[in-house]
Amino acid sequence: MATFIYQGISPQEKREKITATSFHKTLKPKNSLLRVLSNTPSHRGLVRTMEDMQNDQNAVVNPSNALPSPPQALSKSAQKKLVKQQRFEARKAEKKAQEKHQKREEGERKRKEWEEKLASVPEEERSRLIESRRSLRKERMEKRSEERERKIERLTRARELGQKIVLDLDFAHLMTPSEIHSLVQQIMYCYAVNGRCTSPCHLWLTGCEGEMGSQLQRLPGFDKWMVEKESQSYIEALQDQKENLVYLTADSETVLEELDLKKIYIIGGLVDRNRWKGITMKKAQEQGIQTAKLPIGNYLKMSSSQVLTVNQVIEILLKFMETKDWKVSFFQVIPQRKRPEADSEGYQKVEGEENEEQDDQLDTKKKCIEEDPSHG
């Protein structure tokens, strides 16, 4: 190394640089030597060489300065899950495009039929048909306006006297963006169903921040929703009512028999709970609040896990508030695929109503968007 550094210089310069090198070994920190030598014109070449060597050593000692390592390959299960998610998204996009195309074709077909009908009748009849159509449209708009007013009255009354139900949205950091999107869609459905109920609940959304808050803000008219929205957690927003908080979790040993208007029932907003089993129960225990579970086992046997989606739990509670009957509430909300056939015997009527409600879910997003945002 010394031969390489001192090659091609005079003996006097060599002695000076050897002296400087010996001085460098005894002087600490090394940067002090570099600053001293850099002020000497005859030593500037040596300083540059030493700086290069020091940088090379730092690159070895400090891996953070080196090139980033290539990303680790996904496990087989992760690869399968990714492929499955990609296929689902592709099918979803294809279905959405197909529905949009069919809707456009249906609108075009109706428009042509209307124009052909007007062209085939005399002028007087044509005027009568146009006026009749205008009257029907006006009647529909007035009916929607009346329903919105009734909805506002129901939700206003629920804010004062209704059963308080909280959706705990503090689990966003445990979910993927697609899972957060799925939860946001469930929340939108919860709001639509609650607004149509004769006795709606007083709905709270806590933890509305970050990615969760951003996706909620993208919902049509979300700013005008008649619900309580809190960026902080429920334990902070409702700290003065902590003794009345009840976390609904399937892991609780306490069975919920009746709803108490004084209590505030909390539902965990978490998609794919199989990855986080027992997380809501653990959270409630750490916070020192009460827990309870729906009495599903008293009325039917689930063919799979008793974990339900957020909108299913909300619907069950709303049905019970209306009917005061847990069995009716469960059979009208819980999908038949989660119930053994034996539990369905003698309950065809309820199943029929359930199927009708499941069909209604397909129009939920459309109904939410069509509602005037200024009316909540």
UniProtKB/TrEMBL annotation:
Q: Does the keyword Endoplasmic reticulum apply?
A: no
Any single GO CC term annotated in Swiss-Prot or TrEMBL for this entry: nucleus
UniProt-listed GO biological process terms = tRNA N1-guanine methylation
Give the start-end ranges of region Disordered: 59-118, 336-376
Under Gene Ontology molecular function, one entry of this record is: tRNA (guanosine(9)-N1)-methyltransferase activity
Q: Which residues form the SAM-dependent MTase TRM10-type domain?
A: 151-341
Entry EC no(s): 2.1.1.221
Q: Where is the composition biased (Polar residues)?
A: 59-77
Q: So what does this thing catalyse?
A: guanosine(9) in tRNA + S-adenosyl-L-methionine = N(1)-methylguanosine(9) in tRNA + S-adenosyl-L-homocysteine + H(+)
The record's annotation in InterPro entries points to: MT_TRM10-typ (IPR028564), MT_TRM10-typ_sf (IPR038459), TRM10/TRM10A (IPR016653), tRNA_m1G_MeTrfase_euk (IPR007356)
Residues at the active site: D272 (proton acceptor)
Q: Would you indicate the residue range of the signal peptide?
A: none
| Stretches with biased composition (Basic and acidic residues) | 86-118, 338-352, 362-376
Question: Keywords in UniProt for this one?
Answer: Methyltransferase, S-adenosyl-L-methionine, Transferase
Q: What is this protein called?
A: tRNA (guanine(9)-N(1))-methyltransferase
Q: Native species of this protein?
A: Carpinus fangiana
